[in-house]
């Protein structure tokens, strides 16, 4: 494996949360897709010890919910488009539901430091606006979905410290904008293709340690 990139610890990526154009200020997206996806997420959580989702209900627009930010035309308006979902450090127990893939305008998803189980749903690969995906420190199993290669906007991908097994899908090398890739502390195995050195020209942080790669 060639290593032309600099391996640095603790590089924080500053996310740009663009103020996109907004047309509707009701339920967010087509037919309230964002609202329904968020409610699906809440349903999939079986234990929420810190009550992070307890106020996720119809009494307030979802853009005012804990952990959620969106884009709105004016301050006084409800947002029309969900942009970021950050529920880090809430010790949430449950699965990541397939509905998460319907958050087609979501740019940042951070679920670090929870107790999420099950697999990374392949539907997540439909959330193609994602620039940042952090699932670090959970109990997620299964393998890295092949479709991750569709998330071509990704700058940050951290799946570190989970129970993910299988190989690294070749489609991952499609993510040419990646600046941070961390897969450390999983049960990944197999060969890493030699292209890994060329696939990510902007890479600033790479951590693949504590897996079972053979090269
Ligand atoms: C995403 O944004 C576009 C353009 O603002 C909008 O037409 C679409 O309905 C949004 N989709 C969702 C799921 O919010
Ligand atoms: C709904 O959320 C509000 C806060 O937005 C909270 O005060 C209220 O207790 C919640 N209602 C239910 C039934 O959970
Ligand atoms: C904002 O959302 C809340 C709850 O969904 C709704 O009751 C209220 O009418 C909305 N306000 C505007 C200005 O759309
Ligand atoms: C998510 O929230 C935590 C605090 O709960 C913060 O430390 C972290 O920087 C946030 N992550 C993102 C991507 O906004
Ligand atoms: C994801 O997209 C594929 C096609 O691009 C579609 O067949 C599938 O139903 C979508 N899944 C979800 C959960 O939206
Ligand atoms: C690679 O990205 C392109 C979009 O840039 C997408 O059409 C294609 O399906 C992706 N390939 C894989 C293997 O995921």
TrEMBL record:
<keyword id="KW-0732">Signal</keyword>
<protein>
    <submittedName>
        <fullName>LRR receptor-like serine/threonine-protein kinase</fullName>
    </submittedName>
</protein>
<feature type="signal peptide">
    <location>
        <begin position="1"/>
        <end position="19"/>
    </location>
</feature>
<keyword id="KW-0325">Glycoprotein</keyword>
<dbReference type="Pfam" id="PF08263">
    <property type="entry name" value="LRRNT_2"/>
</dbReference>
<comment type="similarity">
    <text>Belongs to the polygalacturonase-inhibiting protein family.</text>
</comment>
<dbReference type="Pfam" id="PF13855">
    <property type="entry name" value="LRR_8"/>
</dbReference>
<keyword id="KW-0472">Membrane</keyword>
<feature type="domain" description="Leucine-rich repeat-containing N-terminal plant-type">
    <location>
        <begin position="33"/>
        <end position="69"/>
    </location>
</feature>
<keyword id="KW-0677">Repeat</keyword>
<dbReference type="Pfam" id="PF00560">
    <property type="entry name" value="LRR_1"/>
</dbReference>
<dbReference type="InterPro" id="IPR051848">
    <property type="entry name" value="PGIP"/>
</dbReference>
<dbReference type="InterPro" id="IPR013210">
    <property type="entry name" value="LRR_N_plant-typ"/>
</dbReference>
<dbReference type="GO" id="GO:0016020">
    <property type="term" value="C:membrane"/>
</dbReference>
<keyword id="KW-1133">Transmembrane helix</keyword>
<dbReference type="InterPro" id="IPR001611">
    <property type="entry name" value="Leu-rich_rpt"/>
</dbReference>
<keyword id="KW-0812">Transmembrane</keyword>
<keyword id="KW-0433">Leucine-rich repeat</keyword>
<dbReference type="GO" id="GO:0016301">
    <property type="term" value="F:kinase activity"/>
</dbReference>
<dbReference type="InterPro" id="IPR032675">
    <property type="entry name" value="LRR_dom_sf"/>
</dbReference>
């Amino acid at each position: 494996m060639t290593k032309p990139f600099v391996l640095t610890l603790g590089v924080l990526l500053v996310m740009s949360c663009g103020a996109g154009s907004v047309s509707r200020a009701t339920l967010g997206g087509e037919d309230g897709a964002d609202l329904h996806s968020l409610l699906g997420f809440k349903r999939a959580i079986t234990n929420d010890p810190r009550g992070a989702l307890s106020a996720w209900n119809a009494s307030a627009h979802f853009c005012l919910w804990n952990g959620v930010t969106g884009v709105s035309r004016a301050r006084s308006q409800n947002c029309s488009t969900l942009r970021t979902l950050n529920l880090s450090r809430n010790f949430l127990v449950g699965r990541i539901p397939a509905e998460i893939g319907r958050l087609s305008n979501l740019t940042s998803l951070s679920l670090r430091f929870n107790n999420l189980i099950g697999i990374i749903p392949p539907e997540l690969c439909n959330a193609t606006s994602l620039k940042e995906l952090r699932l670090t420190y959970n109990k997620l199993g299964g393998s890295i979905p092949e479709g991750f290669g569709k998330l071509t906007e990704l700058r940050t991908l951290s799946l570190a410290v989970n129970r993910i097994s299988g190989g690294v899908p070749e489609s991952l090398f499609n993510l040419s904008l990646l600046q941070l890739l961390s897969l450390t502390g999983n049960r990944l195995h197999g060969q890493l293709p030699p292209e890994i050195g060329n696939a990510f020209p902007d890479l600033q942080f790479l951590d693949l340690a504590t897996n079972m790669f053979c090269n």
